């Protein structure tokens, strides 16, 4: 059984999808042991408390700089013997200290089809605003490994979602969450915990279920 830490900043609907997936056996060989929030107001913390999961708040203003923040993050992850770190809407920048300490053990959910609509400034509703402004007919979500390159790590899973004529950023966000994010993140976490993800440069191969 692998130990999972989920890093959050907001509502925690992706955290909830992971909690539910663990309960109903979709998230195989993984146990969510820790939630770390970058915001004291994140409703994700309530979701952790509702499910008996230890949670801590690490806000960047408590630390002198990104390196000190990153040291505190690694220390907490190590305390919980973390095997997999999942970024589920985590908005605080951390340094290479974290990606080095947890190399190829951090995954992130991005609400678009990387390499489209990603990188600096593309988070939350901003992503869907840009998608609608561009006129594309299809968007979606991506789960990828986290490296020091923002949204640039090897892609694990993607799922397409249609853009509708009358979509607003809010309706599109909700549909991408419902149809893609909340399915992909638990599936990717489960594949990782089963040891079925093989990183090959920029590619990720998925081994067949034993
Ligand atoms: C999601 O849209 C996710 O794709 C993005 O941040 C949002 C987090 O939402 N990274 P929630 O906190 O999981 O509800």
Quick overview of this protein structure:
With about 210 residues, the protein is α/β, with parallel strands linked by helices.
Architecture overview:
The protein is of the alpha/beta class. The model has no long low-confidence stretch (mean pLDDT 97). Helices cover 35% and strands 25% of the residues. β1 (2-8), α1 and β2 form a beta-alpha-beta unit. It has six helices and nine strands; from the N terminus they run βαβαβαβαβαββαββ. The strands form two sheets. The chain has a seven-stranded mixed beta sheet, with helices on one face. It is globular, with a radius of gyration of 16 Å. α1 (13-23) crosses α6 and α5 (125-134) crosses α6 (169-193). The protein has helices spanning 13-23, 43-50, 66-79, 96-101, 125-134, 169-193; strands at residues 2-8, 30-37, 54-57, 84-87, 106-110, 138-145, 155-162, 197-200, 203-206. Bound molecules: 5-O-phosphono-beta-D-ribofuranosylamine (GRF). 5-O-phosphono-beta-D-ribofuranosylamine (GRF) is lined by residues 8, 10-14, 44, 88-89, 109-111, 124, 177, 181.
């Amino acid at each position: 059984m692998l130990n999972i830490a989920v890093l959050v900043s907001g509502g925690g609907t992706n955290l909830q999808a992971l909690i539910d997936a663990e309960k109903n056996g979709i998230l195989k060989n993984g146990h969510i042991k820790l939630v770390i929030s970058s915001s004291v107001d994140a409703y994700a913390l309530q979701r952790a408390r509702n499910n008996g999961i230890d949670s801590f708040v690490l806000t960047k203003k408590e630390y002198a700089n990104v390196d000190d923040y990153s040291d505190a993050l690694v220390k907490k992850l190590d305390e919980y013997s973390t095997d997999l770190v999942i970024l589920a809407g985590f908005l605080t920048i951390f340094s290479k200290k974290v990606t080095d300490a947890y190399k190829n053990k951090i995954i992130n959910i991005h609400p678009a089809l990387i390499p489209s609509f990603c990188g600096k400034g593309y988070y939350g509703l901003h992503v869907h605003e840009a998608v609608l402004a561009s006129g594309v007919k299809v968007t979606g979500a991506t789960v990828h490994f986290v490296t020091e390159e923002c949204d640039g790590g090897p892609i694990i899973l993607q799922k397409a979602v249609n853009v509708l004529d009358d979509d607003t950023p809010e309706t599109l966000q909700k549909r991408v969450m419902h149809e893609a994010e909340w399915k992909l993140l638990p599936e990717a976490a489960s594949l990782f915990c089963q040891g079925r993800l093989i990183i090959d440069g920029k590619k990720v191969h998925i081994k067949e279920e034993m």
